[in-house]
Amino acid sequence: MRRIVIGLYGFGLIQIIMLSAYHFYLPTQTQWQLQVQGAPLMMSWSLFLLNYGWSLMAFIFASLLFSCLMTPSRETQTKQYVAGSFLLYWLVHTMRIFFVPAPVPESMGWINQIIQGFSVQIVILMALGVIVFRPQNAR
Questions:
Q1: Cα 3–6–11 angle (5° rounding)?
Q2: pLDDT band with cut points at 50, 70 and 90 for residue 56
Q3: pTM
């Protein structure tokens, strides 16, 4: 059972690493610069910086936790705190996108369902990290 939990947790971390790496390219692919023409320069700069900051944070945290998962160590309490912090981030993020969904046209409302479903799945997988990194004597 432990191997399954570790595998699922690793799968969730790989998804986040891939999503965050893709997010670095997303503004170029979707031509955000065309969408913000005419907006104040500070607004467009903030939008790009926010995307970059999220991408970098998610990539670093997920990579760090994946490294922790692959490296045997007795420092499980620190790993559990980091995993718990990342879980908390995803939990708050998921709640936010449920209460304030993306402003998309009604015909594209399905996109919000995909985003929400993905976030719920990530919360569940990140919760496994708290279990995986529990100290051995606590099991």
A1: 125
A2: very high
A3: 0.76
Distance, in Å, from the CA atom of 121 to the CA atom of 124, rounded to the nearest integer, reads 5
Tell me the backbone φ, ψ of residue 13, rounded to 5 degrees: -65, -40
In the structure encoding, which two tokens stand for residue 118, read together?
Answer: 């993905």
* Residues 7, 1: Cα–Cα separation, whole Å: 10
Residue whose pair of structure tokens reads 């503004």 in the numeric block: 27
In the block, tokens 């999503």 appear at 19
**Is 49 a residue whose pLDDT tops 80?**
yes
Round to whole Å and give the CA distance between 91 and 29. 28
Residue 106 three-state SS: helix
User: Nearest CA to 58 among 19, 32, 9?
Assistant: 19
**Sign of the alpha-carbon torsion through 49, 12, 98, 27:** positive
- Encoding tokens for residue 65? 């936790």
